[in-house]
């Protein structure tokens, strides 16, 4: 159960950041998940790639242009720095709560949740001491249609190469930042509502995977406008607010070193996406079709 939750936590931001309602306002040519950032005083270009945090091995592929961009960069930057042991400890801490889930529900609500959890291969007794954020992470496990030993984490594969090539590694935020955003966006009752949509997440994730593999951002844009998974308030908490914080940190990182940023794909586009926010700061941001 512990490993399942850890996998779910790693995957849930892929889903939440790829199911937000957003307007496609960047450029006419967005058929790329890799973008180059230049100008505005940068001596070398940096790169941003959109990721799908967890994929089954059969669907997993990192395109040559992404590897080339990483190799050209001096620093590798993820949402969270997985090499920081303090951050890994924070993930463990995030999973538990002071108040049991059952104590926050009526007896009828607890019974209903127990029935819902059966569809996830567990029950309320097993998860009762976990946080609502940890419980919410189970939603993402529906999007992984293969055994745990057949999955690959996109950022981890990039990280392995970055470490092998002795690149510096950084994070845009802390685990606590992510946890706070998710817990504010999805309280316990909203989390239970999302758990009821498990099969719909599975269907959506399959379509997203295919669109991601083909870098079909037009199709992704249509998929992310599904209002079932994220409303405007949740979009602001999970995407917009975090993007605005990140874009304040990125200039210094890019100024000091040519940086390669790997973030959930949903953070790239839209009025409040990283591409537009960086353009607003005076950078030239363009899609990379080959490198």
From TrEMBL:
| Subcellular location(s) of the protein | Membrane
* Name assigned to this protein: Uncharacterized protein YbaP (TraB family)
This protein's source sits in the domain of life called Bacteria
Q: Membrane topology per the record? A: Single-pass type I membrane protein
| Signal peptide interval | 1-22
Q: Which organism is it from?
A: Chryseobacterium sediminis
Q: Which UniProt keywords apply?
A: Glycoprotein, Hydrolase, Membrane, Metal-binding, Metalloprotease, Protease, Signal, Transmembrane, Transmembrane helix
Pfam families on file: TraB_PrgY_gumN (PF01963)
* Cofactor or coenzyme needed: Mn(2+); Co(2+)
């Amino acid at each position: 159960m512990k490993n399942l939750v850890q996998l779910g936590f790693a995957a849930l931001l892929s889903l939440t950041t790829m199911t937000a309602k957003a307007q496609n306002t960047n450029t006419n040519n967005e058929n790329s998940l890799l973008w180059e950032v230049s100008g505005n005083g940068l001596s070398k270009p940096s790169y941003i790639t959109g990721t799908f945090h967890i994929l089954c091995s059969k669907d997993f592929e990192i395109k040559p242009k992404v590897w080339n961009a990483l190799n050209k960069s001096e620093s590798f930057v993820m949402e969270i720095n997985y090499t920081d042991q303090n951050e890994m400890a924070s993930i463990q801490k995030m999973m538990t709560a002071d108040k049991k889930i059952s104590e926050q529900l009526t007896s009828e609500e607890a019974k209903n949740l127990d029935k819902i959890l059966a569809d996830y291969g567990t029950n309320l007794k097993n998860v009762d001491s976990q946080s609502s954020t940890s419980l919410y992470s189970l939603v993402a496990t529906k999007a992984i249609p293969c055994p745990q030993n057949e999955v690959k984490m996109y950022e981890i594969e990039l990280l392995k190469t970055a470490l092998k090539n002795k690149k510096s590694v950084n994070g845009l935020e802390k685990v606590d930042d992510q946890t706070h955003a998710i817990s504010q966006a999805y309280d316990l009752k909203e989390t239970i509502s999302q758990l009821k949509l498990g099969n719909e997440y599975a269907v959506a994730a399959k379509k997203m995977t295919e669109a991601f593999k083909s870098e079909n951002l037009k199709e992704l844009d249509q998929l992310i406008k599904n209002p079932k998974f994220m409303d405007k308030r949740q979009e602001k908490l999970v995407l917009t607010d975090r993007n605005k914080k990140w874009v304040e940190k990125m200039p210094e990182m890019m100024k000091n070193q040519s940086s390669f940023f790997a973030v959930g794909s949903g953070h790239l586009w839209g009025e409040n996406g990283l591409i537009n926010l960086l353009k607003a700061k005076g950078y030239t941001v363009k899609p990379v079709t080959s490198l």
